[in-house]
Amino acid sequence: MIELNNVSKIYDIGEVKVNALDGVSFTCEKGEMISIMGHSGSGKSTMMNILGCLDRPTHGSYRLDGHDVARLNDDELAAIRNKKLGFVFQSYNLLPKITAVANVELPLVYAGKNHRREKAMAALKAVSIDKRAYHLPQEMSGGEKQRVAIARALINDPLVILADEPTGNLDTATSQSIMNLFTELNNQGITIIIVTHEEDIAAYTKRTIVVRDGKIVEDKRR
């Protein structure tokens, strides 16, 4: 489903060139649950941005579900993001002035789909947060907001969910609850890739890729 082949990402900072990624290659099959680990500055966030079609590699190729992503224009990339990818972020990225269910509906609005409320309520129910559907984000706990964010990520039946430090703002018990939810979703066949710096979070996944200085230094399966 995912194939990175000799991917490099070079940033020009003044007269200095920084290799954020340096010849990275790996594949991800449908139904895998993978964690990407690394210290700050290791390149893991750059890798996540490329996987999420938010950035393009300087060199190398990235194929997602058979598409050579590096060759797509901005509109085509946006379509790929909306149809094939679901995103979950550390800071939730919920709009503060609309309800949980309205936040979940947003990808359907962008895609021009019908029956949005019905589908959004089903997604909220799937992650056990439907009873808070008409609450604003400010009226919800961190764990509740993250469940809403996961429901939003699921709404378009994506091929892959990409989660960037999804438990970074949560306490231990809530983090475990969210990771158990990701595990349940993965058991249903959803492919999940999680960026984390926490070993106990990575332990929930079936495979861990460790990035250091822009290179993959370890790829271990459980």
Strand order of the largest sheet: 6-7-8-3-9-10
CATH architectural group: 3-Layer(aba) Sandwich
CA radius of gyration is: 17 Å
Compressed to H and E, one letter per element, the order equals EEEHEEHEHHHEHEHEE
- The name CATH uses for the topology is Rossmann fold
Counted up, domains total 1
Looking at the structure, what is the overall shape? globular
Q: Which segments are poorly predicted (pLDDT under 50) over 5 or more consecutive residues?
A: none
Q: What do we call the CATH homologous superfamily? A: P-loop containing nucleotide triphosphate hydrolases
Mean pLDDT equals: 92
Q: Report the CATH C-level class.
A: Alpha Beta
Tell me the fraction of residues in β-strands, as a range. 25-35%
Number of alpha- plus pi-helical segments:
7
Summing up helix and strand content along with how strands pair, one would put the structural category as: alpha/beta
Largest sheet: 6 strands, mixed
Question: How many strand segments?
Answer: 10
Characterise this structure.
The chain has 222 residues and is an alpha/beta fold. The chain is 34% helix and 30% strand. α4 crosses α5 (142-154). The longest helix has 16 residues, at 172-187. It is globular and about 50 Å long. The model has no long low-confidence stretch (mean pLDDT 92).
Keywords for this structure?
single chain; 222 residues; alpha/beta; six-stranded mixed beta sheet; four-stranded antiparallel beta sheet; 10 strands; 34% helix; globular
Gist of the model:
This protein has about 220 residues and is an alpha/beta fold. It is built from 7 helices and 10 strands.
